Amino acid sequence: MRAMQPYETLDAVPAPLLDIRDLRVSFDTPHGLVKAVGGVSWSLSPGETLGIIGESGSGKSVGLEAIMGLIKSPPGHVSGQVLFDGRDVLTMAERDRRQLRGEKIAMIFQDAMSALNPSLTVGTQIAEVYRLRRKCSQAEAERKAIELMDRVKIPSAKTRVGCYPHEFSGGMCQRVMIATALALNPQILIADEPTTALDVTVQRQIMTLLAELQREDGMALVLITHDLGLVAETVDRAMVMYAGRIVESGPVDALFETPTHPYTRGLIRSMPRLDGASGALHAIGGTPPAAGRMPRGCAFHPRCEQRVDRCLTERPNLRMVAKGQAAACHLAEETRHD
Amino acid sequence: MTDTPVFEVRDIRKDYVLGKPGLFGGKLRSLAAVRDVSFTLRRGETVGLVGESGCGKSSLARTVLRLNEPTGGEVRYHGRNILDLPKAEMQKLRRHIQVVFQDPYSSLDPRFTVRRILSEPWQVFPDIVPPARREARVAELLTLVGLNPSDADRYPHQFSGGQRQRIGIARALALEPEVIVCDEAVSALDVSVQAQVVNLLKDLQDKLGLAYLFIAHDLSVVRHISDRVIVMYLGQVVEEGPTDAVFRTPRHPYTVALLSAVPVPDPKQKDRDVIVLEGEVPNPIMPPSGCPFHPRCAHARDLCRQTPPPVREVGDARVRCHFAGELEPAADLRHLAGPSEPGDRA
Ligand SMILES: Nc1ncnc2c1ncn2[C@@H]1O[C@H](COP(=O)(O)OP(=O)(O)OP(=O)(O)O)[C@@H](O)[C@H]1O
Ligand SMILES: Nc1ncnc2c1ncn2[C@@H]1O[C@H](COP(=O)(O)OP(=O)(O)OP(=O)(O)O)[C@@H](O)[C@H]1O
Ligand code: SF4
Ligand code: SF4
Ligand SMILES: [Mg+2]
Ligand SMILES: [Mg+2]
């Protein structure tokens, strides 16, 4: 399972484009050190779609911002390796890293409306990087911006290229972010909840566009989302995060069919149903650990209905439980087919 | 349980004047974001509001709350037209009408701790929570939304997207309002936390008779929480009715397309047939003639291109389509009958 042990390849796969090894991120705060990401390893091949799901606050965004070299230090501390084409992004000079960002790896941020600059027109923001990198004229940059706005289905792009973000709806801002990320044809697109502000028809158009870019240019996609329907329909492989770690990973069909970690199972059971069954929704009992106070042993143990003594003291490692599927739970084998 | 109208909205309209004149320096353009929308929200009721991104949902919400000045129409709060209320009066009303904004980050002051963000409104309305209870109430509110009491000392930028969204929800609850407008209020939450928050909203509604205007793109949440649903397209309401009726027998072709496109959390249904909305994305600056949906509607006929459709009553629903009730939905909507149980096959 590559998500677990990047060194060991079970299936014959192309060399990874991105290889993350034991990535850790923590923050200094007035109340002590907060560990946001506690050692994750995974890799990504060209053209692949990797989904990341999991608890709100489990380190999904922080982990990906670290990969992009965007965690400010202090207060942040990042360790581990992020290998792109064999070079470690974390130790390279900021100049090289900036070159990589945008050109090779692009990111769509979670909070589209606050990630945009309120005092620049959307057209300028979409084409700015393109204009600087490709050294083209204003007029050509504007043409590019309009073309990209059309691609992400913003209506009347030509008339609205000169609008400011506050004149756009939430979903239109999100599409501006997507257009910006696509401007330079990146090899890897990291998309942090890219479609939360989009209705399902526009979401489908955007996902189709991304799939096209993957097919045509071999772009790899990392998709963070809470939308399990979107995960089921678009990704090949998914990782489930809880309290800063990967607790389960595997092919998406397996995750839905035989979810193994109790957290994954609780998550799947919590989905509201489309058929409108009424009554209270199922939610996992208890609360996630407070920042800076990670429980000993298995981080999920205070909320786990099947915990045993050993869970309180011994941390379970991610290990293979079936072909391609790995879980970090002491009882993974025993409880798998419940 | 649903009786007195809390909000009555009649023919509300919102036009925006676009800042920059056209490329050729011509006249200012205006954009009709909300076009003659009417609806009623009763005590203890949840009205779901769905529709295409950019169709005017947030604009409608902001206009009803007078965060935007409407271009026309009427908004009655307990029978009183609030559009003529002087500013000071309106300010007093605000404690009863809260909003959870679509963008959690920009609505939280980055300089303040969560404690201050949650307790600030109590300075303005001190009778809600007596000073001696405030510390405990902050802890309670944080726990209710699945955060930890120790989070009170942290600043907005130290939280994840979903955690910030929950701070926004806690802030809305702090004032013990009568109405909450939730604009994509649970979209950044994992499904378990989302379930917790949705259950909380429903509990409060049962206990206190809260009313919600619930804007969301997640149709399964909308189906779960709403008593009635409003579907908007290009600034207009195209379908409105009891939630079950709209989800079981959608009548407007746009509603059918929307429901058909919901992603289903079951990898086996990946290759299901989905209506793809072809044609130009609608331009709100120059809406199409006749029925605004006609360029993308599989059922469009000449009448649709020429004459705007009236609202027709079909069963319990109100539908803005010339042929409402006469069309067979051209879509596979079997997924609305529910995903196969995950995890129950070994
Ligand atoms: N600057 C910071 N200082 C201290 N703690 C931080 C900081 N930034 C993030 N955190 C904490 O790190 C953890 C991980 O945050 P992250 O944003 O990665 O979560 P996430 O998985 O993306 O959640 P969501 O689904 O809600 O977006 C959270 O508990 C958050 O409170
Ligand atoms: N301040 C403004 N000035 C000019 N146009 C605006 C302004 N605010 C919104 N608009 C336009 O009004 C239309 C409706 O926007 P609104 O934000 O209400 O959409 P929405 O339905 O909430 O969409 P989303 O689901 O993407 O959030 C859009 O075309 C938008 O660009
Ligand atoms: S290791 Fe123990 S506490 Fe953790 S998920 Fe497995 S059974 Fe539950
Ligand atoms: S009025 Fe005509 S174009 Fe409009 S939705 Fe009905 S059938 Fe389609
Ligand atoms: Mg996040
Ligand atoms: Mg909106």
UniProtKB/TrEMBL annotation, chain A:
UniProtKB keywords: ATP-binding, Cell membrane, Membrane, Nucleotide-binding, Transport
Subcellular location: Cell inner membrane
CDD domains assigned to the protein according to its UniProt record, in alphabetical order: ABC_NikE_OppD_transporters (cd03257)
Entry coiled-coil feature ranges: none
Domain ABC transporter: start-end pairs: 20-268
Membrane topology, record value: Peripheral membrane protein
SUPFAM superfamilies recorded: P-loop containing nucleoside triphosphate hydrolases
First and last residue of the signal peptide: none
One Gene Ontology cellular component annotation held by this UniProt entry: plasma membrane
PANTHER family hit by this protein: DIPEPTIDE TRANSPORT ATP-BINDING PROTEIN DPPD (PTHR43297:SF2), OLIGOPEPTIDE TRANSPORT ATP-BINDING PROTEIN APPD (PTHR43297)
The protein's name in its UniProt record: Oligopeptide transport system ATP-binding protein
Automatic annotation (TrEMBL), chain B:
One of the GO BP terms on file: transmembrane transport
Domain of life: Bacteria
Localization terms from the record: Cell inner membrane
Membrane topology field: Peripheral membrane protein
Keyword ATP-binding included in the entry's annotation: yes
CDD domains associated with the record: ABC_NikE_OppD_transporters
Organism: Marinovum algicola
Protein name, UniProt field: Peptide/nickel transport system ATP-binding protein
Span of domain ABC transporter: 7-259
Family of this protein: Belongs to the ABC transporter superfamily.
Chief location category: membrane
PROSITE patterns tied to this protein: ABC_TRANSPORTER_1, ABC_TRANSPORTER_2
Entry GO CC: plasma membrane
Keyword DNA-binding attached: no
Matching PANTHER family: D,D-DIPEPTIDE TRANSPORT ATP-BINDING PROTEIN DDPF-RELATED (PTHR43776:SF7), TRANSPORT ATP-BINDING PROTEIN (PTHR43776)
Entry GO MF terms: ATP binding; ATP hydrolysis activity
Keywords, sorted A to Z: ATP-binding, Nucleotide-binding, Transport
